[in-house]
Amino acid sequence: MNDACLTIWDDDACRRVHEATLDVLAETGIEVRYAPAAEIFAGAGAQVDGTRVRIPAELVEAALKSAPRDWTIKPRGGDTEPLVLDAGHTYCGTGSDVLYVCDPDTRERRRVRRADVEGMAALCEKLPNIDFVMSMGLPEDAPQVIDDLVQVDAMMRGTRKPLLVAPRDGHILPKMQEMAALAGERDSFGIYAMPVPPLLFDEDGASKVIACAELDIPVIWAPAPNAGTTAPASIAAVIVVANTEVLAGLVLSQTVKPGAPFIWGVGVGAMNMRTMNEVYSSADVFRGHQAQTDLARWYDLPSFAYAAHTDSKVLDEQWSAEAALTAILGKLSRGTLLHDVGYLECGLQSSYESIVFGDHLLGWAKAFMAPLAVDDEALALDEIKAVGPGGNHLARPYTRKHFRQIWQSDLFDTTRHDAWEADGSKTLLDRLRARVAELRSEPRAFELPDDAQAGLDAILADVEAFRPGT
Predict the structure, then answer these.
(1) Which of 63, 116, 409, 436 is surrounded by the fewest CB atoms within 10 Å?
(2) Is residue 340 a contact partner of residue 307, using CB atoms and an 8 Å limit?
(3) Over residues 26-38, mean pLDDT
(4) pTM to 2 decimals?
């Protein structure tokens, strides 16, 4: 494995942030508005006053010691490798729960439908640099009481790759395990959950942490404090707030079951005070993400960070620039799970083309970060001497053997201008749309067996009939 890695914070900086976090946990604490979680904290030895929970340093240190340093999420078949959740591996995938999609046929921005979730999952099944799948949409046409299960159902029909799922709450997780088992592998998903910034745990989030620990389902506890609104207007201070939330979630998880799988979530927000809109892809936000990833590595815990997304509303020059910047920075961070590949509009819109482009950019980043050998074969001294000054290596056996090892894009144009013009003067977006059309027109990479599909239908019907309305 290549050890090249971008870092912003050294050990001393991480230690100082950790100590500041311990101070906030012990003095200010967190609000816990879910009684079972408050009782778990109290039983562990935290100070509980009504809904305010203050956590001493020794509980944090115990949780850090008991958290596993690796865990595996398996695929449901196919050639995809399992996700080894540790501080030494990096995987990439899409994001969840956006409201809108850029329709691949009409180009209109519209609400996401169930078919989009399945279609984008099926697209991801064919993309070599997408290692896990998130829903990329909150389906408008799903009954609200089961929209979280509908997303899981749609993804399982579209892909065999591991899933990261954002359920409504933790109470539904046994049903999700049933669905995964029907689709081929019970242990093929992890859960994405969030506290409420700043420093608040509600039932939706806390119940997910508790249920995941009880069921040995990996939980990603991902904070989202925002500079100047739900945290001070300082990136370092935002990270202290975020780290307080994450470490409190870790204590909850490890109190329920020492050794429960836990992924340290990265999340720094910043508001554009002129537009009052979230800035998703700015340099300072990504600088904060990198510092948080450094902190997760200092804790030796697997992390959940970002890659290959944009704030742009359409597939334009801003989109391609921000997607490229965040793809390479995400890969260089060495975060364990890099998500939101293909997001547009600050996380409100998805697109087939942006997913395919993100996959391609991640391939570029992977090639850039590959080890560069300096062994005898790579240095090729005999070749240099044999050809000599003024010679040519074009017809050499060494060239025929090695030239394909040099990564070259099949989306970026590298032809001469006259050849490009003769081929229709196609832009990058033209080529991407053609690639998406080709991938969508091809047969599915797999079809879920009929009995599995019928079983999923039955689970959805059962939960819709008995789950309370929302």
Answers:
(1) 409
(2) yes
(3) 98
(4) 0.95
Dist CA 262 CA 276 (whole Å): 33
Q: Where does 311-375 have alpha helices with state H?
A: 317-333, 352-369
What is the number of alpha carbons within 13 Å of residue 395 lying toward its C-beta? 2
Token readout for 176 is 């999700």
Spatial distance between the Cα atoms of 339 and 341, rounded to a whole number of angstroms: 6
pLDDT-derived band of residue 279, with 50, 70 and 90 as boundaries?
A: confident
**What is the band of 8 on the pLDDT scale with cuts at 50, 70, 90?**
very high
Domains and CATH numbers, the chain: 66-369 (3.20.20.480), 376-405 (no CATH)
Q: Write the DSSP assignment of 393-425 as a string of letters.
A: -TT-HHHHHHGGGS---SSS--S-HHHHHHTT-
Report how far apart, in Å, the C-alpha atoms of 438 and of each of 136, 161, 356, 442 are.
21, 21, 12, 6
CA distance 435 to 128: 14
User: How far apart are the C-alpha atoms of 262 and 339, rounded to whole Å?
Assistant: 16
d(CA 14, CA 366): 27
